[in-house]
Amino acid sequence: MASTVSGATGVSPSADRVIDESVTKKVALAALVGTALEWYDFFLFTTAAALVFNAQFFVSQDPFVAAMGSFATLAVGFVARPIGGFIFGALGDKVGRKKILMVTIVGIGIVTGMIGLLPNYMSIGMAAPVLLVLLRIIQGLAVGGEWSGAVIIAVENAPVAKRARYAALPQVGSPIGTILSSGGFFGMLYLVGQTNFDAWGWRIPFIAAIPLLAVSLWIRSKLSESPEFEALMESGETEHAPIRGVLKNSWRQILVGMCSALLGIGGFYLITSFVVFYGTKVLKLPSELLLLGSLVAAALEIGALIWAGRLGEKFGASKVILWGGVASAAIAVPVFLAIDSRNPFLVVIGMMIGVAVLSIPYAVSGTALTALFATKVRYTGVAITSNTAGVISGFVPLIATALVAATGNSYWPGAIILLVVSALTALSGLFLPGLSIKEEGMKH
Questions:
Q1: Gap between the Cα atoms of 443 and 278, Å rounded
Q2: DSSP sequence for 311-373
Q3: Mean pLDDT of successive 10-residue stretches along the chain, which has 444 residues
Q4: Are residues 268 and 335 in contact, defined by beta-carbon separation less than 8 angstroms?
Q5: Nearest Cα to Cα of residue 165 among 312, 293, 296, 59
């Protein structure tokens, strides 16, 4: 049993149990469906922040000021995520993974539907952005416990040697969420036109989250609880103060884990949300082109995630994170040069390459993070780590937008930010093996 909270010395109870891979596949699929809805809801907000919130909720004559207000609201959701991570992570280590995953998915889906019904600034004045911020905070709290729980329950139901494969499946929820959200906006633009889209069409994808929530709840209700957590419950070895234990004994794991997750989260928002704003407002490209680029990039990302998950299974997550970060750093400048060219073909290609390459370390981040923490504090540790990285990532579009304005609408701030984030993630790959739990059959 896991008798310590230290990632380097903790022992997992998984070594002696027999795994039924048919159950593993069902759990991974249920986790995938939940994360797809999670990211659909969250990416709706990021895309809307770039396309419509600056006009609907933040009124200003200066488009950069309106965009800064819109992206600041985006960042607020990320600030709320670690708080949600503390709350739901601790609960997940006390009462179980499945129960918390049911709560978080409901919170995300309902809030998203409410955003679609929220009156704009022209209707209720300052109450509109205030209510939007409040809903975003609630959404951020729920997201804070969602991704970590989904990855953990997939990992803890998987054979040790195949954890990277199954942990990559919930990650596929990210591009699926992107396809659904960007596809929803793209479809509404095509069907109703720009004027009607700006007036009311943007609301439809948000309201659609409610029926999608019903489907997700039905599928997630069939999840099997983690056998590792059940073993802890039966032995009475659950951690009574997981937050204190993690912060006291595993702060190194948190720091390194944050860096390992930074590229997959922050880099993604840079290539999608920020690029949509930069392309439409600075380069004067049609929003349909940028949404198309996001869609095609997300479709390619699905294959990249599955492929990188297999690489993690074969070579170890830390190696994939290291070399994925190096590759992302290498393509940072070319990607933004392609986008800055204003050539529609090069813009889409740049977005595709950028998202595909940064997805390589993202595919195995779930495997890497879960290996850093013992079972009894895993939910808390992973939630705190991933969501703290999310806070930093949430400010990436805001920082990039401010730097672009300060440098006369130049492309290079975006390229430099991607380069720095890539380097931090690559560096983390060197430290992960020494901080991870040692398990037979597990390659770090």
A1: 40
A2: HHHHH-HHHHHHHHHHHHHHHHHHHHHHHHT--HHHHHHHHHHHHHHHHHHHHTHHHHHHTTS
A3: 40 53 82 84 76 72 62 74 90 88 89 91 84 87 88 88 87 87 84 87 91 86 79 79 88 95 89 85 87 88 93 93 97 95 95 95 93 91 91 82 84 91 96 86 61
A4: no
A5: 312
From the DSSP assignment, how many helices (H) and strands (E) are in the chain? 22, 0
**Could you tell me if 6 and 247 are in contact, meaning their C-beta atoms sit under 8 angstroms apart?**
no
Per the listing, tokens 């597990």 go with 442
d(CA 119, CA 125): 9
- Give the position of tokens 């690559």: 426
Q: Alpha-carbon Rg of the chain, whole angstroms?
A: 21
CA distance 197 to 38: 23
Whole-number Å distance between alpha carbons of 354 and 350: 6
User: Where does residue 119 fall: left (phi above 0), alpha (psi -120 to 50 degrees), or beta otherwise?
Assistant: beta
**DSSP reduced 3-state for 112:** helix
> To which residue do tokens 């990249």 refer?
304
Compute the distance between CA of residue 415 and CA of residue 16 in angstroms, rounded to an integer: 47
7 by DSSP, 3-state: which? coil
Neighbours of 255 (CB within 10 A): 15
Q: How far apart are CA 218 and CA 296, in angstroms?
A: 29
Q: Which residue, 41, 31, 28, is CA-closest to 213?
A: 41
